[in-house]
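> call design_seq(struct)
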């Protein structure tokens, strides 16, 4: 994959981010829910960058952040997290 992976943390703002990223990059980012893929599947996609959407819950609760904590800890990919 060449492009941006947008991780949706079950937030309605995700598609606003999708539109902005598409406008900036000229390509549609791939959107996946935070519990839809394994870390290996994300690694296999080989995104150029990852954007983590905002979402409900607390970052200290594993079920609220899904794959995001592992993306931050284990992947060497430019990553932007958005919080509202």
């Amino acid at each position: 994959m060449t492009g941006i992976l947008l991780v949706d943390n079950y937030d309605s703002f995700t598609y606003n981010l999708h539109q902005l990223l598409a406008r900036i990059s000229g390509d549609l980012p791939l959107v996946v829910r935070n519990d839809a893929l394994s870390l290996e599947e994300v690694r296999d996609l080989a995104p150029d960058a990852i954007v983590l959407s905002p979402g409900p819950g607390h970052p200290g609760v594993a079920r609220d952040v899904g794959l995001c904590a592992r993306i931050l800890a284990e992947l060497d990919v430019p990553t932007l997290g958005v919080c509202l």
